[in-house]
Amino acid sequence: MDSLLFLIFAAITVICAINLVVQTHPISSALSLIGVMGSLAVLYLLLGGEFIAAAQLVVYAGAIMVLFVFVIMLLNAGGERKKPRRLWPRYAGIPLLFLFLALMGYVGNRVLPPSGDVTFGSFVGGSAQEIGKRLFTVYLLPFEVTSVLILIAIVGAIVLARKEID
Amino acid sequence: MQLWLIPILPLAGFILNGLFGRRLSKAAVNVIAVGSVLLSFLWVLKTLNSLGAFSGGLEKAYLEHYYTWIQSGSLNISVDFAVDRLTAIWLMVVTGVGLLIHIYATGYMAHEGGYYRFFAYLNLFMFFMLVLVLGANYLLLFVGWEGVGLCSYLLVGFYFLEKFATDAGNKAFIVNRVGDFGFSLAIFLIAAHFGSLDFATVFAKVNDMPVESHLGWITAASLLLLVGATGKSAQLPLYVWLPDAMAGPTPVSALIHAATMVTAGVYMVTRSAPIYLHSAMALDVVAVIGIATAFFAATIGLAQYDIKKVFAYSTVSQLGYMFVGLGTGAFSAGVWHVMTHAFFKALLFLGAGSVIHALSGEQDLRQMGGLRKSIPITFWTLMCAGVAIAGVPPFAGFYSKDAILAAAYEHSPWIYWVGVVTAGMTAFYVFRALFLCFFGEPRGHHHPHESPPSMWVPLAILAVLSLGGGYFFNIPKYLDPMFKVQEEAPGSEWLMYVSIAFGLGGIALAALFYLVSPGIPDAIVRIFSGPYRWVYNKYFVDEFYDSAVVSPVVDGSRELLWRVADVEIVDGAVNGVGKTARAIGSALRLAQSGYIRSYAAWVVAGSILVIAFMGLRGEL
Amino acid sequence: MPLPPLPFPPTPPLTWYLALSAILFALGVAGFLFRRNIITVFMSIELMLNAVNLSFITFSYKLKQNDGHIFSFFVMVVAAAEAAVGLAIILTVFKNRQTLEIDEVSSLKN
Q: Which terminus of chain B faces fewer neighbouring Cβ atoms within 10 Å, N or C?
């Protein structure tokens, strides 16, 4: 059951990623990226990262990607113009890519030590309670520093994007 | 005893005149320049008097130590001044004759530009000369040696707007340099071999050594010292600068190239007498060079028409005599001749300056004549100098020259015979010059006037010294503690008579040629036109040096050292560094394509490399 | 209903997650290198960050600690800040150049 879920959502992830790279208009790429993030959130759940999965959906898919979509809408630049390019690299590259991936997979299988299986629910450290405990005791300083980081980012973004007062 | 005041007073004059002379009046410059030398002379008198130099004292050297100059390993060189009887003679001559010439120069240079500069250089020269004679070690002597060479260059090239003057100054300095190189090598040898440069230490050590009969250290050192002396004292083969140095003002010729600087070589050899006495060959070399120079220069002087050049070659010749004196072991005779020569040669030059001044710059004897009525004081004083240099007894030149010739006969008779012939020639050419100048009909177009007192008073004083200097100052007796007086062999009075005869004969011959029948010289010139041409052109020595030494050096320097070594190699290397840097920069510049995707590609490639590297090394 | 025999194990081994992370990262690099629209390049960067996040969570599962989760959290924070500032820069570039082609923004050339 776990494998099936993994395979389905992994496939969605990969297809959306390929779509992101291949599409001409950035809005299509943005929507594909949202798909990637969604399926990744499910995979995080499978690995026991409840908090992270939620954060992924809320922060990444819900805020960052919305920001992307807004900017694309604002700029309204249109898709990439197709450059005239030769066709034969494209047709030669895909089998090469598969070959490369198969090779990496084989090497990885030989090199990597045998690892355990991932069972849903066997890792309980990913809950909000556990994460919160770590975040506010061991990792307190980085946590506070990130707030400063966000502040800097806000200021930077405002300064960069404002209209000049004529 | 404050010996340091003796040279410092002229140095102060140099500094004051050098810095402020431009704004001072001529009278103020005179006071500073002449006053400093006068004070130095008086201080010399006082010091020598307190040391007992005039009353039979000062048998051993009196040393004043000031400070340690160089201390390197075991070599210790300090700034010390020392006075012994030899130094005393030189101090008196330098400051005394120097004072007279300074006074003369105030009159002679009165209408020249650069007045304060002249006296500043003259004072600087006095400083260096006094350091030279007062120094108690070879290095201080060398400092003074180089310094007087520098001042000679500055003063010979005084009229620096004339090319022949600057060329002469260069020649003087460069030829001197060749001699100085030999002198430096000698100093190195002495320092290496004796471990010290102090006169006292070196001479004590060398006196403990046996006389060297082969070409060893001592002989090498003495020969190298002699090379230095030939440069400074204008002996063969480095005499060529002295005649050209007549391009300087006449007081310079009198002071530097007659009375003081050129005698520095004689002083140095005399001072190094212990070294020379311990080498069997060196003294012979000195004597041979001396007599050869004396003869050679006298022959050239026979045919010259520029009055200053005649006296210049005469100086070279008389310096040769001094070296003969030294080389035959009669050191005090040589020193005696230094003193008497200072008197009459300075007088000759100053008198020539007076004549030139009277004729408003004419120096060619062929344009002079019949001046004895117009400038009588100059005439009579120059006559005194003439009889002194000719060796007519009982005047100054006779005593010193006779002492030298007697010692020469004791050593090697052939030197004596060449010496008396040269004495005859000396008398001849000096009186030739005097007769051409003062007798006969006026040949030039000038209106001669007598010189001012500032000029003829020193002439008169020098004339008195030239006449009586030999009789009253018996130098060999004075230097007896240092160099034992050689007893005259009995029955050797005929040497004296022969030399007197040659001297008087020379005067008579000159009178014959130039007073009685002036046609004879022209006839001789026509008959012996070949040899005459050689003599008149100074045996083409300058031309020979030019083609053998100067041109190869200059051309080699220009073609090889400048074009190749400097322009191509050095500049090429330096420019090449710049060019290489630029080339590398141009190549690296291409990496900055401004093209973000290429930067991205570089980032990815770099990170792959890093990961691969770490993975392969097993640290991933 | 019993499932038919599947060619894969019932629970996915850890290596599959890592392989997925690698594939996503490679796709992100490809998009980063080969696309010409600045915004698409930016999104490829976000894809790379996500792939790395997955890797962190995977290893955190393996090591039975939640440090990986926390690191992943911080990655998200930084990605957010970076996205904000980066998009502001893109806006400025568009205002000045009127183009989003990455090849045209090359006035620092040589």
A: C
